[in-house]
Amino acid sequence: MSINPQRYRLPITLILLLSSLIIFCACSQSTPKPDDHKLSDKFYQNLLIAFNGRDYRLVRSGLDKINEAGIADKRTIYLGALLALIESQPDTAVARLQDALALDPEFGDAHNTLGTVYMRQKKYAEAKSEFLLACNSPTYQTPEKAYHNMGNLYVILGENRQAQSCYLKAIKINPGYFPSHYELSRLYLQMHQLDQAANESEKARQINPDHPGVWLQIGKIELAKGDHERANKAFAKVIKLQPGGDFANLANQEIKKFNNTN
Question: What is the pTM of this model?
Answer without folding.
Answer: 0.82
